[in-house]
Amino acid sequence: MFRSVHYFGMTGVEKTPRGRSEPLLPSKFRCVVTTPSYNTSDLRSFFDQCALTGCSEQHGHPQRLLDYRLALLRSLARPRPTDVVLDIGCGTGHHLLGLGPEVARGIGIDISPGMIELARVRLRSSPWRAKLTFEVDDAEGLQKIANRSIDLAICIGAFEHMVDKRAVLSSIYRVLKCSGRFFCLTPNADYVWYRPIAPLLGFATKHLSSDRRLTYDEFAALLGETGFGRTRSAPWKFIPRGDMPVVLASLLNVFDAMGRLARLDSLRGGLSVCAWKQATALRN
After folding, report:
1. pLDDT (tens digit, 9 = 90+) per residue, 180-203?
2. Residue 55 — left, alpha, or beta (φ > 0 → left; ψ -120 to 50 → alpha)?
């Protein structure tokens, strides 16, 4: 499925991106209105409000996107029938519910009570309800998850919204068993849309002012500092269609095809990463 795979060394310091002010929002075509946010309470309020709208998929056909994301997960993280899976920032639970038949047990956590309520409603009609649970919890602390109790932690479309990413990774490392895996799907900060195109056209790209996307190197450095060992990543197709006019989405679709052929990751929108906790880890 992947045209290129990168392996990262585990040394380095987290990079702070150069400060850039967010563009003003005068354009009638703008599809993102950035909400000020500074802490986890702001995130909770934002996603509780999102839950009130039902959280419909904005970036494409819901089932096709779900199938694609789960295929990426299976390719890199390889869920096993014996796995206990933790879905961090689970939202309405659609990814964990999709994994239900493939794992032993699943726990979904989200900072938003509204999102968790929607996930629990969906769970009631799921054939996998006996082995899946959804709880309100903060990804930076994971207070409800015991040390070394998780085989596979996943975070799909949520990591970019988390304020203290280093704290999130430390908590994930703590709850993973030795040789446990962490899998993440998130936008790629080096994507051509986020770097030259959107700033040039004056388009906002953040839903929350605290949102921060990472490059491959930044993510690898953070994982290494947290204690993770082997790390594997690959680009994937992500076009934030809900954040832009249709004509721009069509252009980015062409860029993605070019990126696949030329193996230019900057033309692909997504960053997929799988990291392993070392089998001989001396930490929690």
Report:
1. 999 999 999 999 999 999 999 999
2. left
